[in-house]
Every structure is written in structure tokens, then in C-alpha cells.
């Protein structure tokens, strides 16, 4: 989607919101606009918010049909041996991918994380390599993953900024994550050689109960990381991501996240252009077709935090009168520019809908014959 981040938003980083945590960031999800930041690039231990990237890779595998929600995962000795937060999976136990996602999203289960890593990549190490590759692709320059669950180890680090980047990727590309991250309590059934038994999951993210607009996403806490959260919420079509790192206790973690979300909702208004100008067909010179149709690359979005009158946004379409073949589908044909108070606030590309090759002598000859026999 086009990133129409508010160029004035960086100045809001000093906005009057009092936080106790040493590192934090507030981002609007649809545009990627940073509304507030506090030492957002400090390199810190992430604890279980690591699992946001684990979930991205799980949903990537679902998206490419490498796995399905109904696939059955067998728990290894290594996965079952994980300490920290867990759902006490036993070696040889089987659970569906769907249940594993619930265990990770709701109960922050380390054992379920490792079981899924092994199921997708063959080993946790191979999965972690994929995590780091995916992080690099998102521009997460402050991040290095060493495991898939967030247990404290050397060099397993990230930043509030990078956590916001991967949180945005998860909730915008795979919004179905909210079907899991908003579960407050649910039971799963352990299936082992000893038989079946019920186990209760309770969401580690207390904002699901405490904050009216909460939609997720992930908590984390270890001795080195202290208390962290990537909190997502939606109100009036505004989707916010509040990242809190290294809070001194769990109450501060949630209080700071709530304060950031309240601040964001109080100043943010989102403009989305659902009625852009109609696009003409462009004349093509020297091609096998004389006209080519056009389309917009996506929907333009702009986040305002300064109280501007968004009805004053103006649009200007820039297109050539004629183009020369060849024409390639998906290439840029022109641009739709948006201005507010005579200042450009963003743009969206106009693309060619089809490919039109350059006409050959044979094409011209064929057209001449067609014209002749039509007389």
C-alpha cells in the first residue's frame, strides 16, 4: 500500500504524553506515520514480542499454502523442553496449526513457537534464519533474532521502532491475527499417550479487557527485557500501534500503552481517497493497440495530526497526452498528487493495465489488408 506518511508527524515526537518506560513508539498502521517516539532506536531485549515475527512467518506459510490451519503438528523433545511461558506441550503430542497459533497469540507459549518453527523450517535455527531475513526485508536495522520465542540470550535484540515495523506488517498483511489476539480465555485439549486433558489459555495482554478499542497484539517480559508490549487498537477507522519497551513492571507497561493510544486517538484523523479522478485511456503511438487503460496503484491515505481541514485537500493528475510503444503492464504512467494548504502531502502512482508491444511491419501489413478487404 502507498505510504503517505505525514511529513509533519516527526515534530510530534515531543508531544506532551508522560511515559515511565525508557523506550516507546506510536505508529498509525495504514500509513506508517510515526506519531510519537521516545528513544525508539535503543537496542533492547524484546522478550516474547519476538513472537510477532514468528507469527508473520506462520501466516506467510499459510498464505503460500505451505501449511494449512488443519495441519497436525507433532511436538519434539526440544520444543517440549522450552522454559518460560508455555502451555506444557509434551513430546509426541499433536496439535493443529490453528491451536498452535492460539497458544502463541493468547498464552505466549514458547513450546508452541518452537514446535511451529520446526514444522515450517525443519529446525528452530533454520526458522530463525528466515526471521532475520524477513526482518531485513522490512527494514528492521536494529534487530537480530537468535531464537523464535524471545528467551534471554546474547545478541537477541531489537528496538521499539523495529517492533512497530513488524507489528504493522502482521496486522496489515494478515488482519486475521486479531481473531486470535483478541481471545481473552479459551481452552485447548492436550492429546498425549496418557489421554486427553483440558488446559486453559488466558491472554497475557490485559488491555484486551482493560482498553475499549484494543485489538492485540503481543506482550513480553523477561529479566533482561523487563516488561514490553506491542499494543494495537482501532477507533473510527484509525489503527494504532503502541510499543512500550523495558517498562519497570507490568502495570507501567499497560498504563504507558494506554496513554499512548489515548493520545493518538485524540489527535489523529485519517483521510482516505475513495473517489479519485476517473482515468482516461491513453493514446499509444506505434503499438499493436491504439489505446491503453490505466488504474491507480492503491488507495491514497493521509494521517493528519495538526487539526487541518481535510476538505481542503486538492488533487492534481499528471499524465502524458500520448505515449510511444512498447507499453509494459504495471509500469508507471503518471501520478496523482495531493496538496493541503498549497503543500504536497503525498501522491499515488498511475499504472498501465496492459502490455502493448511495438507494432512490426507484419502488423501494419495485416491492418492494411484488413482495411482493404473491408471496403
Automatic annotation (TrEMBL):
<comment type="function">
    <text>Removes C-terminal D-alanyl residues from sugar-peptide cell wall precursors.</text>
</comment>
<dbReference type="Pfam" id="PF07943">
    <property type="entry name" value="PBP5_C"/>
</dbReference>
<dbReference type="GO" id="GO:0009002">
    <property type="term" value="F:serine-type D-Ala-D-Ala carboxypeptidase activity"/>
</dbReference>
<comment type="similarity">
    <text>Belongs to the peptidase S11 family.</text>
</comment>
<feature type="active site" description="Acyl-ester intermediate">
    <location>
        <position position="48"/>
    </location>
</feature>
<dbReference type="GO" id="GO:0006508">
    <property type="term" value="P:proteolysis"/>
</dbReference>
<protein>
    <recommendedName>
        <fullName>serine-type D-Ala-D-Ala carboxypeptidase</fullName>
        <ecNumber>3.4.16.4</ecNumber>
    </recommendedName>
</protein>
<dbReference type="InterPro" id="IPR001967">
    <property type="entry name" value="Peptidase_S11_N"/>
</dbReference>
<keyword id="KW-0732">Signal</keyword>
<keyword id="KW-0645">Protease</keyword>
<feature type="binding site">
    <location>
        <position position="218"/>
    </location>
    <ligand>
        <name>substrate</name>
    </ligand>
</feature>
<feature type="active site">
    <location>
        <position position="108"/>
    </location>
</feature>
<dbReference type="Pfam" id="PF00768">
    <property type="entry name" value="Peptidase_S11"/>
</dbReference>
<dbReference type="InterPro" id="IPR018044">
    <property type="entry name" value="Peptidase_S11"/>
</dbReference>
<comment type="pathway">
    <text>Cell wall biogenesis; peptidoglycan biosynthesis.</text>
</comment>
<dbReference type="InterPro" id="IPR015956">
    <property type="entry name" value="Peniciliin-bd_prot_C_sf"/>
</dbReference>
<dbReference type="InterPro" id="IPR012907">
    <property type="entry name" value="Peptidase_S11_C"/>
</dbReference>
<feature type="active site" description="Proton acceptor">
    <location>
        <position position="51"/>
    </location>
</feature>
<dbReference type="GO" id="GO:0008360">
    <property type="term" value="P:regulation of cell shape"/>
</dbReference>
<dbReference type="InterPro" id="IPR037167">
    <property type="entry name" value="Peptidase_S11_C_sf"/>
</dbReference>
<dbReference type="InterPro" id="IPR012338">
    <property type="entry name" value="Beta-lactam/transpept-like"/>
</dbReference>
<keyword id="KW-0573">Peptidoglycan synthesis</keyword>
<keyword id="KW-0961">Cell wall biogenesis/degradation</keyword>
<dbReference type="GO" id="GO:0009252">
    <property type="term" value="P:peptidoglycan biosynthetic process"/>
</dbReference>
<dbReference type="GO" id="GO:0071555">
    <property type="term" value="P:cell wall organization"/>
</dbReference>
<feature type="domain" description="Peptidase S11 D-Ala-D-Ala carboxypeptidase A C-terminal">
    <location>
        <begin position="265"/>
        <end position="358"/>
    </location>
</feature>
<keyword id="KW-0378">Hydrolase</keyword>
<keyword id="KW-0133">Cell shape</keyword>
<keyword id="KW-0121">Carboxypeptidase</keyword>
